[in-house]
Amino acid sequence: MLATVVWRRAPSSGQEGATALITSDRTVRGWIGGACAEPTVVREAMKAIDEGTPRLLFLGPAEELAAHTRDGVVSVPIACQSEGALEVYVEPVLPQPQLVAIGRSPAALALTRMARGLEWRTLAIDDGDDVSGHEADAVIASLDLGDVDGRSFIVVATQGHYDEDALERALDTPAAYVGLVASAKRAEAVLGYLRDRGVPEDRIARVHAPAGLDLGHIASDEIAVAILAEIVGLRAAGALDAPEVSAAAPRHVEIDPVCGMSVDVADARYRTTHDGRTVYFCSAGCLDAFEQDPARFQKVGP
After folding, report:
1. Considering only CA atoms, which of 56, 52, 54, 49 is closest in space to residue 25?
2. What is the sign of the dihedral through the CA atoms of 230, 232, 238 and 240?
3. Alpha-carbon distance 147 to 215, whole Å?
4. Superfamily of domain 98-236
5. How many other C-beta atoms are found inside a 10 Å radius of the C-beta of residue 277?
6. Which residues of 71-93 are buried (b: 16+ CB within 10 A; e: fewer)?
7. How many CB atoms lie within 10 A of CB 13?
């Protein structure tokens, strides 16, 4: 996530144009603001990473939120004792999709070439020479699909050379799309072979075979276009949504009863015990205000 301060009200410690990179494990590299602003931005950044969408944050006193409410803006209360305020634009930086083409056929070569034109990550797995028998087994054993994830699309275009083995290996991965370049008759035979081999039906159901939009008898480059069109269409329809990328487990959040700000319990520096429960605060000022008159804030708390 890239976070950029686009507006500030002095004396906020965040400066216009200040940036920070926030990773999915909540590490912050850079500077966007002080003890009130930073944890709030990190929390919203985790949501933006999960959803894959950018957002503009207004961080300021609770009484100012209504005045800053408008489309596209997330207003978040912070208890900045300096009375500063910030607007921070947070934008997810997610990995591009990956296309893995298995085989040395013209369709496989065209696929990787066109995918690079889309700025996708590409991996071409080329068997090099005609292989069969034990040599084919060796090729399959050497296939490195360790980088395949939920943003990967695998297309088996081996054209009869170890189709079944390559497809079975592809189905062992979490790839969002697995396609087989083959005629309808050949595809049916390959899937039947996998059933006979004991591959579960739910895995076989993942296979797009024949891969690509049905455009009839077309050239290899056009087959590649048809496959990419199918993948892009499925993505646009939400059928190939990638899994959430947040590495960190969900955090337990409590509300500061003084200012209403959300406080991550795991990182809370300011806390006290009242009526047998722990109360968390964003700052020493809020803790001090609560301890002076707890009854005043009890209805505001969780």
Report:
1. 49
2. positive
3. 31
4. NAD(P)-binding Rossmann-like Domain (3.40.50.720)
5. 10
6. eeeebbbbbbeeebbbbbebebe
7. 20
Which residues make Cβ contacts (< 8 Å) with residue 281, sequence separation at least 6? 256, 258, 263, 268, 270, 271, 272, 287, 290
Between the alpha carbon of residue 207 and those of residues 119, 145, 178, 293, the distances in Å are 25, 17, 5, 65
- Phi, psi (5° rounding) for residue 159? 55, 45
Of 160 and 246, the structure prediction assigns the larger pLDDT to 160
Q: For residues 155 and 226, is the Cβ–Cβ distance under 8 A?
A: no
Residue 233 is which amino acid? G
**In contact, 41 and 59? CB cutoff 8 Å:** yes
User: Which of 254, 260, 253 has the alpha carbon at shortest distance from 64?
Assistant: 260
Predicted TM-score (pTM) of this structure:
0.62
Contact 242, 148 (CB under 8 A): no
Of the two residues 193 and 66, the one the predictor is more confident about is 193
Give the list of residues 6+ apart from residue 100 with CB closer than 8 angstroms, or none. 122, 123, 124, 125, 145, 148, 152, 153, 154, 155, 170, 175
259 closest CA partner among 40, 38, 79 = 79
H-helix or E-strand containing 141? helix 134-142
Residue 120 gets the label, from left (phi > 0), alpha (psi -120 to 50) or beta, of beta
Domain with CATH 3.40.50.720 in the chain: 98-236
Separation CA 105–CA 221 (nearest Å): 11
- Determine if residue 225 is left, alpha or beta; phi over 0 gives left, psi from -120 to 50 gives alpha, anything else beta: alpha
Share of the chain above pLDDT 90, in %: 36
Q: Which residue has the tokens 């850079």?
A: 30
**Structure-block tokens of residue 219:** 């050239």
Pair of tokens at residue 178:
């697995």
pLDDT in tens, 219-242: 989 999 999 999 999 998 888 875
Both tokens of 25, joined, read: 């494990």
Paired tokens of 216? 């009839």
